């Protein structure tokens, strides 16, 4: 698993580097990611915040459009931007739809044999990327990880965080999301993804990959969750996101606004213009826990 | 010249709107631009800052990747992002090269008959866009205009500003640029553009479209110029930008660092990662003059 540097850009006193490596989790395919190291990484290990992007995106969208790098540089936090799926698996039909297959990995491990060799973004993000960073000797303190994401990536961030808390692993100190798919077993995007990637379909997803179902099982574990969504978001209006379901489940098991904060932002939509507006807020939220 | 709204995104408490209209300056072709209005535009006219993008770009690059909207919202300044050339003129060869024709209008008015009907980005930016904004009743105070840009757009911003000062028009209160093409009659990009668009070629460009030549004629007019370029910029290293020539010409005629400030930024490149790093700086620079 050796890392190849594809490009490097100085930004906000730090450096954004695009890497490529042969990903075992993704069946031996090449995988790219962007890593932003703030200037203070030159003098010691820094905490890391993972950003999971949404449908159709790559490792570039968040890095280019999120307005995250400035606040991360200010806080002294690294940012890691993975891709959103394997690329070039050669599976029949994987490039037919924008909301399934390439660009739409849903941050799960596929169990449908057709996809199980390559579509393992869960392992890629939670295990493989931290390992490859550590083995490359990059100046990251892996005891200080947090995660955030947008839309499908918000779903990924919430489910990876909650699963890790449920398992008692506590891989991530905090999670945040912009317009997350919050109850995917109840929305068209989620049903399609789970129906395709998982042998057991939506039923198999319920206990593992649905943030609303996951938080409904909790109540005692301390949580640090921030969610923003816009009331002008067409996908929200179409019932793809369902943040109210997540909020209700959280309140029903006793989480208050300090532990699970869900903010409705008047008139904002699903775009990176929305994300960038609240990007600094999210970075500072995570910094509270990453630097504690 | 009626304006059609193509899309609208709430951002940083304000609104980014993409407009389309039939552009007389561009020979009747459809032209797009993005306009960001900060929240305070709801209660009165606001100053406006034009951003001219570089080769291959559209009206979207600066809006999406520049990290300009947040600082502009904070300062209460509107941002206007024009396209970089006419689109679809149907002139033979206009789509063959990335540095000439479509996406590469160079902010001039063509005199070569082949291009003269459509390639008039100078008139489009300096006259047509302000007019259409005024006639649409948008809440912009056109007595408070400034301009900035990147690369080819830095060339555009500098030459439009200096020409207006030389003519005594003072359309723009201040100018800034990221990695501008500063002496285009001396670099390959400029020679190619002027050779193609202008009947008199590079000779015709010297007095009108070369920032270094323009400033060399001045010395008495008060100027407000800020330029940033990166020492890791490959186009700088290849001699396409030549900011030192501009700086020397400015100093030779007596402009000091207060009036003409050219900053060399160690290790930065030509990308939007560089631009976004210093984006807030440039917005605040212009705010000093726009709000004076």
From TrEMBL, chains A, B:
This is S-formylglutathione hydrolase. The keyword Membrane does not apply. Belongs to the esterase D family. GO terms for molecular function: carboxylic ester hydrolase activity; S-formylglutathione hydrolase activity. It comes from the Eukaryota. GO terms for cellular component: cytosol. Its EC number is 3.1.2.12. It is found in: Cytoplasm. The active site is at 151 (charge relay system), 233 (charge relay system), 270 (charge relay system). Serine hydrolase involved in the detoxification of formaldehyde. GO terms for biological process: formaldehyde catabolic process. It catalyses: S-formylglutathione + H2O = formate + glutathione + H(+). It comes from Wolfiporia cocos (strain MD-104) (Brown rot fungus). Keywords: Cytoplasm, Hydrolase, Serine esterase. Pfam families: Esterase.
């Amino acid at each position: 698993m050796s890392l190849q540097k594809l490009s490097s850009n100085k930004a906000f006193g730090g450096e954004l580097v695009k890497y490529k490596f042969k990903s075992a989790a993704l069946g031996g395919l090449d995988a790219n990611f962007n890593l932003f190291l703030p200037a203070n990484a030159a003098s010691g290990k820094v905490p890391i915040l993972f950003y999971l992007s949404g449908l159709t995106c790559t490792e570039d969208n968040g890095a280019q459009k999120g307005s995250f790098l400035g606040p991360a540089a200010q806080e002294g936090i690294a940012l890691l931007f993975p891709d959103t799926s394997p690329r070039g698996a050669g599976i029949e039909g994987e490039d037919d739809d924008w909301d399934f297959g390439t660009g739409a990995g849903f941050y799960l491990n596929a169990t449908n044999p057709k996809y199980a060799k390559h579509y393992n973004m869960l392992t890629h993000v939670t295990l493989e990327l931290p390992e490859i960073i550590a083995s490359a000797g990059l100046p990251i303190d892996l005891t200080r990880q947090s995660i955030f994401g947008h839309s499908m990536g918000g779903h990924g961030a919430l489910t990876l965080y909650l699963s890790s808390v449920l398992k008692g692993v506590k891989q991530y100190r905090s999670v945040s999301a912009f317009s997350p798919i919050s109850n995917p077993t109840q929305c068209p995007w989620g049903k399609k993804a789970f129906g395709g990637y998982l042998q057991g379909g939506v039923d198999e997803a319920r206990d593992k990959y649905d943030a609303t179902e996951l938080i409904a099982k909790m109540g005692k574990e301390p949580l640090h969750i921030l969610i923003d969504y816009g009331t002008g978001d067409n996908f929200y209006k179409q019932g793809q996101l369902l943040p109210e379901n997540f909020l209700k489940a959280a309140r029903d098991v006793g989480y208050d606004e300090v532990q699970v904060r869900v903010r409705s932002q008047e008139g904002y939509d699903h775009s990176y213009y929305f994300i960038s507006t609240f990007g600094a807020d999210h970075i500072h939220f995570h910094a509270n826990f990453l630097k504690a």
